Amino acid sequence: MDDLLFLDDSEDAEPPAAEADEAGWVVLVVDDDPDVHIVTRMALQHFRFQGHPLKFVGCYSASETLAILPTLPDLALILLDIVMESEDAGTGLARKIRAIPRYDKVQIVVRTASGGYGGTAAFSDIPIHAFIWKHETGKAELEHIVADALAAHCAATPAPA
Question: In the chain, helix, strand, coil percent, each to 5?
Answer without folding.
Answer: 35, 20, 40
